[in-house]
Design brief:
The protein is mainly α and 124 residues long. 47% of the residues lie in helices and 3% in strands. It has a two-stranded antiparallel ribbon with strand order 1-2. Keywords: Calcium, Metal-binding, Muscle protein, Repeat.
């Protein structure tokens, strides 16, 4: 599965163009522009699984650095400042990775700014 099977190519392009300049990446705005905020919990789960490059169930800082390149191979790498800011915003349990343990869903912590967590729990 690819990201373009969940998100439109035009929306992905729009989101990537908005953050072309270093230190201009804003996760909340990016998710809105690429259309992820309008997707179902299952579609968000699919996107998370695609972004989880090593299939560990978590998105670690090293994977997060290449976040934009998962949407388009020619996209830039996130700066250290952007990577740490993104991780800080999405890492609710401060374990240094985006995901969850036990009964908490990864979709509660990963895009907590994407969709309401009440609807997410039905997917887990």
């Amino acid at each position: 599965m690819s990201l373009s099977s969940v998100l439109s190519a035009d929306a992905i392009d729009c989101a990537l163009k908005d953050c072309q300049a270093p230190d201009s990446f804003n996760p909340k705005k990016f998710f809105q522009l690429c259309g992820l905020t309008k997707k179902s919990p299952q579609e968000v789960k699919n996107v998370f699984n695609i972004l989880d490059n090593d299939a560990s169930g978590f998105i670690e800082e090293e994977e997060l650095k290449f976040f934009l390149q998962r949407f388009s191979p020619g996209a830039r790498v996130l700066t250290d400042k952007e990577t740490k800011g993104f991780l800080s915003a999405a890492d609710d349990d401060s374990d240094g990775k985006i995901g969850a343990e036990g009964n908490h869903g990864i979709y509660i912590t990963f895009p907590s700014f994407i969709i309401n967590t009440q609807s997410i729990q039905t997917v887990l």
